[in-house]
Design goal:
single chain, 364 residues, alpha+beta, OB fold (Dihydrolipoamide Acetyltransferase, E2P), 2 domains, binds adenosine-5'-triphosphate
Length: 364
């Protein structure tokens, strides 16, 4: 069993708090991805699970046993680093088997495990080469192979694909997904990459400033972010945030208005009082037409980013606010043209203005 439980886990560096009390359960066999802005504590949390950083406060249980004071090698965990961390003077086979020889695994068994991992990763033909004779993608396979041979119950990945080019990242992403399916091991993965997080994760943990903002299935975070931070962090292109005024509240609905928006009735969410608020609208939820049951936004096209099947439209509303919309790639649009987009009230979310204190038009 390799379920993990973090209870009130904290990390301080010399009185500076970087992880501020994390409670999290990770189920056996689950693929969990940590995301968040640079410096939010993703790697620190991962390294505490690995045993590479001491836990300042709180409890880490692995497989139902307290692991705070276990050495890294006794945790049943293997970690794959962004930098690959291969020994240049050893062959691929020796790199992969290095941890096993340290643990005095019988030679025949070590050789068999290396051969099996090489087969899984399709690098059998590279076993006699040195790291300098490998491409970046091949080196990353060796680093993953070195983790596999240890037969850990938990794999930790710290941005393993960030040194690879886009095409290779996609191949390796699929490879890691297949590995998870085949091995059935618990995997915890840190990334900056939205696509990796959305496609690999059973659940995503969004961190900000050492605090867990939300934990959930990718689709749930995308559709129902709990606050404006998560709404802005998950999804690409980035969420639009419009400052609005809540004029009245009734039966869980808020009547909102703003220059160039509404009035429109939307779900009140966490809003309990009339006053300033933020309306969030995904670029994909804006349609370049105006239907009776949709709410209009009037503006003009500033910039078009043609991606092929779709185009990202950067428009400026009459209120001066910039907004992004995603439209089909074959839609004829020109910079400078006046345009009306519209949204369905069910597709937007309302958040307190205090969620985004630097939002123009909202109080500080
Ligand atoms: N050894 C250390 N001593 C002091 N502060 C540290 C140490 N290691 C990390 N920090 C601080 O802890 C915070 C979290 O760092 P961490 O590397 O976990 O962030 P991250 O979310 O993984 O960032 P990135 O995405 O940039 O890798 C940062 O403010 C960092 O400066």
């Amino acid at each position: 069993m390799a379920d993990l439980r973090l209870t009130g886990v904290k990390k301080d560096y010399g009185g500076h708090s970087v992880i501020k009390g994390v409670d999290l359960e990770i189920r056996d066999g689950e693929f969990v991805v940590f995301v968040g802005p640079s410096g939010c504590g993703k790697s620190t949390l991962l390294r505490m699970i690995a045993g590479l950083e001491e836990i300042s406060d709180g409890t880490l249980d692995i497989g139902g046993k307290r692991a705070n004071d276990l050495s890294p090698r006794d945790r049943g965990i293997a970690m794959v680093f962004q930098s690959y961390a291969l020994y240049p003077h050893l062959t691929v086979a020796e790199n992969m088997g290095f941890g096993l020889s340290l643990r005095k695994t019988p030679r025949a068994e070590a050789t068999a495990r290396v051969a099996r991992a090489a087969e899984i990763l399709q690098i059998t033909h590279l076993l006699d080469r040195k790291p300098s004779q490998l491409s970046g993608g091949q080196r990353q396979r060796v680093a993953i192979g070195r983790a596999i041979v240890r037969e850990p119950s938990v794999f930790l990945f710290d941005e393993p694909l960030s040194n690879l080019d886009a095409a290779l990242r996609m191949d390796m992403r699929m490879e890691i997904a297949r590995l998870h399916r085949d091995l059935g091991a618990t995997m915890i993965y840190v990334t900056h990459d939205q696509v990796e997080a959305m496609t690999l994760a059973d659940r995503i943990v969004v961190l900000n400033g050492g605090i867990v903002q939300q934990v959930g299935r990718p689709i749930d975070l995308f559709r129902d972010p709990c606050n404006a931070f998560v709404a802005g962090f998950i999804g690409s292109p980035r969420m639009n945030f419009l400052p609005v005024t809540v004029d009245s509240l009734s039966g869980g609905m808020a009547q909102v208005s703003a220059a160039g928006v509404g009035p429109v009735a939307v779900a009140a969410g966490r809003i309990t009082m009339p006053g300033p608020a933020i309306l969030s609208i995904r670029p994909q939820a804006l349609k370049p037409d105006q239907a009776a049951d949709r709410s209009p936004l009037h503006g003009h096209v500033v910039l078009l980013e043609r991606m092929g099947t779709e185009t990202v439209v950067n428009l400026r509303l009459h209120s001066g606010q910039s907004v992004l919309a995603v439209v089909p790639g074959d839609l004829e649009l020109q910079p400078g043209q006046d345009i009306t987009f519209s949204f369905a009230p069910a597709d937007v979310r309302l958040f307190p203005a205090s969620d985004l204190p630097d939002q123009p038009g909202t109080p500080h």
